[in-house]
Design goal:
α4 (107-113) packs parallel to α7 (166-178). This protein starts with 5 loop residues before the first helix and ends with a helix. By secondary structure, it is an alpha/beta fold. The protein has a six-stranded mixed beta sheet, sandwiched between helices. It contains eleven helices and ten strands. The protein has helices spanning 6-9, 54-61, 84-90, 107-113, 123-128, 132-150, 166-178, 196-213, 224-230, 248-252, 255-262; strands at 14-25, 28-39, 43-47, 69-74, 77-79, 92-95, 184-188, 216-220, 233-238, 241-246.
Amino acid sequence: MRAPGRAEAAVDTVLLSVEQVSLAFGGVKALSGVSFGIRKGEICAIIGPNGAGKTSMLNVINGFYQPQHGRITFKGETRAKMRPYEAARGGIARTFQNVALFRGMTALDNIMAGRSLKMHRNFFWQLLRHGPALKEEIEHRLRVEEIIDFLNIQEIRRVPVGRLPYGLQKRVELGRALAMEPDLLLLDEPMAGMNLEEKEDMSRFVLDLNDEYGTTIALIEHDMSIVMDLSDRVVVLDHGIKIADGTPDKVRSNQVVIDAYLGVAH
């Protein structure tokens, strides 16, 4: 398990609070009265078996789904509903279970796309790429180059992402999310489909983001060794219901979690 970090120092500062959130599609209940908080500066893992409601929860947090009941408080502001662009402007960034990149664009341009919300010049100036707009673009490109260096992808910065192997595509997608400078970063299975070396690299980036930059992270991950190594806290869902919430050690020894997800111990 990871050593104590920023989360302990910020134990009383709740960045995101989910309160009694319920979500249903017709007669299918994806989430039923789920409540938990994510503290500023921590890495919070959301785990559970397939169909537990993990991705639905992330979709509610970033405004892609609108819950029928409950509310979410983010940075002290309470809401019942929010659109994805409002979440992005408010400081919530997201990566997806299936890579969602502009495949014909380079890695550099994909990450640059994440800076669009930070640009203030109108479309006319950006089209001209002259004067104030050019100055603004240069400033944002410098920030993107810092992200490229951080993720160690200098060699593929000019390569169309459709030609990149899967592991590097996931890294570029992470870079695009980081370009938004989020207060809360949502990672939906960031290491799915990766080999061991790629998982180790991605784990290191996640820890560095949290330790060096103080980025608060909520992640969905099925690899329990990664969950236990990275997380400050773990929230467990099963059939849309929260069944556990605590430190990795506490969750790992919870018999309800063992029976529902980790496998019955003999």
